[in-house]
Amino acid sequence: MEALCKSKAECLNTYLKEEGAPYSKLVVGAIILHPGSSGNSKILLLKRASHEEFYPNKFEIPGGKVEDSDSTVMDAVKRETEKTTVVERKERSVSQTSLQLNHVCEVAGYDFKVNPDEHSEGRFVSLADVEGLEMTEQMRVVVEAGLTWSG
């Protein structure tokens, strides 16, 4: 929780890669729990649009890049989850590294809106549903851990 109160610069200077070098960017993710899904946990996943350069048609948790204008990492989480989409910037180089901080939260209602410029669908899924969904192995680890932790 301490990282959520830090600024982007503080996080990038605090959390270093194994070799001691800073990450190139900071991204956040939100594990959004389905309201009332206690005991049978479900979280919101979004399917990336087919025209996305990186990971098209793959499912992911909502999130995005922490901007310099975000006062804290938590401000970035709130900004990104209010949009319920991931603002994924086109990278000039795939060699950039990023630090991703994920936050677990519960929403008050069932309604959400998917921005079709970035995602083609969204759905609340349980642990049993995850196996059949196309996503990166790294995202699968995050999703399964979020569902296991929340259950």
Low-confidence stretches: 85-96
The biggest sheet amounts to:
3 strands, mixed
Shape from CA axes?
globular
Structural class: alpha+beta
Strands, count? 6
Distance between the termini: 20 Å
Helix-residue proportion: 10-25%
If you compute it from the alpha carbons, what radius of gyration comes out, rounded to the nearest whole angstrom?
A: 15 Å
What percentage of the residues does DSSP assign to strands (E)? 25-35%
Average pLDDT, to the nearest integer?
A: 79
Largest beta sheet: what is the strand line-up?
A: 4-1-5
Number of helices: 4
Q: Helices and strands, in N-to-C order?
A: HEEEEHEEHH
Helix and strand layout, with pairings?
Blueprint (H helix, E strand, L loop, with lengths): L7 H7 L10 E9 L8 E7 L10 E2 L2 E3 L7 H11 L14 E9 L12 E8 H4 L6 H14 L1
Parallel strand pairs: 1-5
Antiparallel strand pairs: 1-4, 2-3, 2-6
